[in-house]
Write a structure and sequence with these properties.
The mean pLDDT is 96. The chain has a 6-stranded parallel beta sheet, sandwiched between helices. It has a 3-stranded antiparallel beta sheet with strand order 7-10-11. By secondary structure, it is of the alpha/beta class. The protein has 2 domains: 140 residues, Rossmann fold; 164 residues, L-2-Hydroxyisocaproate Dehydrogenase, Chain A, domain 2, CATH 3.90.110. Bound molecules: nicotinamide-adenine-dinucleotide (NAD).
Length: 310
């Protein structure tokens, strides 16, 4: 059997790191696509030249077009620009919407059966746009944000308690913005409810730090945003899909009435397997949690409406 094919569009910090991590998994050939001449080719060759040392046989190809990517099983969209000084949020939205629209049209043409994972920001609006433009069934379009936000949340909890990150479980609901909704009530350490191990004010501080997690990295790096944890989070999703693991992961999925939300992509726990988003899990929420989720969904809807107008 030949290997799977995964295309990563955008050979920047997230895309390049993701191509490396995927090649190292060994189960898929990787096609890296970018508009910048030489960038995807250079990164792909560099990753391919690490293969004899690291011991993987995945082919890694860089391209400025989509022909090599044809027939991909999974396509990850990381292309976009970051906000520059003087650029308004609306300008950023307009630019990235144009990029995601154009990329999705190419993917629809060359890989019509792919599962599409969107990473570009503003995430929830860009994944909603990719769904509309692709015309793919909702199961085959998904956004990456919740795995990353949850990974940050788990890291902070594990550090605070001095326990393994592997034993901290939980998830974050809602949009990928500062109104996201980490759920301490559903957070456990090896099955022990978090509230039995941590004071409420420490939990609240960690929830707040999680909400600001992206900004914390930007203010340290100064010239870019996070890419190690984001690329690792995408790999968890690609693993779940290509290895049909049926993992329960928080992902941006199209809601059609679930959680009382309709017509937009919002982060919720999903069963991710060979069929893409195979199921959305609806958990019971308190009135306060429900209000917080709806406030986050309202912010996503506003962004989506601005995107649709752009
Ligand atoms: N969802 C998340 O949790 C999450 C996490 C991290 C980053 N992001 C987002 O991912 C995106 C990428 O981040 P990055 O740090 O890799 O940025 P980057 O600037 O390093 O890379 C973006 C790449 O996209 C390429 N590009 C632009 N237009 C293109 C087009 N039309 N076709 C193909 N490629 C094109 C650029 O040339 C560049 O190489 C950003 O929008 C960022 O905000 C999202």
């Amino acid at each position: 059997m030949s290997r799977y094919k995964v295309t990563v569009v955008g050979a920047g910090m997230v895309g390049g790191t993701l191509a490396q991590r995927l090649a190292e998994r060994g189960y898929a050939d990787v096609v890296l696509v970018d508009i910048v001449e030489g960038l995807p080719q250079g990164k792909a060759l560099d990753i391919a030249e690490a293969a004899p040392v690291c011991g993987y046989d995945s082919a890694v190809i860089g391209s400025n077009g989509y022909e090599e990517s044809a027939g991909s099983h999974v396509v990850v969209i990381t292309s976009g620009v970051a906000r520059k000084p003087g650029m308004s949020r609306d300008d950023l939205l307009k630019t990235n919407a144009g990029i995601v629209r154009e990329v999705t049209e190419q993917v629809r043409r060359t890989s019509p059966d792919a599962i599409l994972i969107v990473v570009s920001n503003p995430l929830d609006a860009m994944v909603t746009l990719a769904h509309r433009v692709s015309g793919f069934p909702k199961q085959r379009v998904v956004g990456m944000a919740g795995v990353l936000d949850t990974a940050r949340y788990r890291t902070f909890i594990a550090r605070e308690l001095g326990v393994s990150v592997e034993d901290v479980h939980g998830f974050v609901l809602g949009g990928h913005g500062d109104q996201m909704v980490p759920l301490p009530r559903y957070t456990t350490v090896a099955g022990i409810p978090l509230a039995q191990l941590m004071a409420p004010e420490r939990i609240e501080a960690i929830v707040e730090r999680t909400r600001q997690g992206g900004g914390e990295i930007v203010s340290l790096l100064k010239t870019g945003s996070a890419y190690y944890a984001p690329s690792a989070s995408v790999v968890a999703m690609v693993d779940a899909i290509l290895l049909d693991k049926k993992r329960v992961l928080p992902c941006a999925a199209l809601l059609e009435g679930e959680y009382g939300i309709d017509g937009i992509f919002v982060g919720v726990p999903c069963v991710l397997g060979a069929g893409g988003v195979e199921r959305i899990i609806e958990v019971g929420l308190t009135e306060e949690e429900r209000k917080a989720l709806h406030a986050s969904a309202d912010a996503v809807r506003e962004l989506w409406e601005a995107t649709a107008r752009a």
